[in-house]
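Fold this sequence, please.
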Amino acid sequence: MSLGMVFALAGAALAALMAGIGSAIGVGMAGEAAAGVVTEDPQKFGKVLILQLLPGTQGIYGLLIAFITLSQIGLLGGAPVNLTTAQGLAYFAACLPMAFVGLWSAIRQARAAVAGIQMVAKRPDQMGKGMIFAAMVETYAILALLISILAIFGIAA
């Protein structure tokens, strides 16, 4: 296995791991807040569940970047590509936006979701506003996903 392949695999792993860790932390934080609301009013389960799920998308995005990278380097559905060190480093760098923004935005989105869950506890009719607050953070995860995809497909392997 070439050093380039090691760098590319490390990038794919980081994207999946860091975004996944962020989502796990975020969904857990929101779940704790949601459980408190449902304890008081079980009828609000559906509303708080939606808010709890929002920070989970970053983990999906990180997994997508890992799959795209693994596919591009031939480890999924093809023969492994003989990558130079420079190409491997390019794949590694291309995965970093999703890795770091996925980790950070999932946690920050969870904080917004927790605030939305607290809003639903007192004013269930305001759930849409709580979702919008949390969804605004999602914009940056989507931008990181986009730049990672563009960078991966821009690498000549």
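The chain has a mean pLDDT of 95. Residues 3-40 form the longest helix (38 residues).
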